[in-house]
Amino acid sequence: MLPEIKLQGDVDVAALSPLVRGMLLAVAYADGEGGIGLTATGAMNRKFVHWAAVNFLWPDFTAEDLYSMNKVLNESDMPPLWVVRDMTRHLKLLRRKKDVLLPTRRGREFLVNPQGFFDLVATDYLYSYVHATERKEEVQARLRWWRMFLNLLNIKAREGCTPLELVKILYPDFEPLSETEMTLEAWELKSDIQYGVLRRLCWLGLLYEAREGITLFQDGSFHKTPLWPACLQLESDTQSDTGVH
């Protein structure tokens, strides 16, 4: 059984969750600007993409980050925007009418009470959503491991943990290897954890990556945000770090 995501307590989900904040801003923009303009191919237009890059404040995808790699921004240049668009469409918060995306009645309800939608957004995104770089089979295969991943992170992310540290816990045969050897030998396993698990939890707002003092190519340590205990109750809540093997 998948761990239930159920928000309890008074937490600011828009401040803590990049995904919810992006969805709120997109629906609010569509509501206030007469819709989000679409290109001839159906992509969000550059005017909105630039606005989103400036206002979403998405970790690792700020306007500064994005414009350091692109002179102009199209929807395809901003991966978080793909998820925001998919989720607002899936949850019927925005609808297409000719060459614009418009808010639905449900979308306006979401603007008023995002907390009331959080459980649905979080459950669908964490367990079901297929990123553009993934296959549906990968997401489905991961379902059987989510309880283990969340219980492990519930303990290890108290003080912070890196993707390679998680790999060593999950695959003890890698423990004797150096970091360089780990990078070579466990690249695929690390990528699965980093992008299939940690990125989802960060974009949802349950984890954040501390990157102070490290280079672009180094992994930071991942820590829980206040949103984690507000929406998850796990078997490992009372378990100490020494109990993890």
TrEMBL record:
<protein>
    <submittedName>
        <fullName>Uncharacterized protein</fullName>
    </submittedName>
</protein>
<keyword id="KW-0614">Plasmid</keyword>
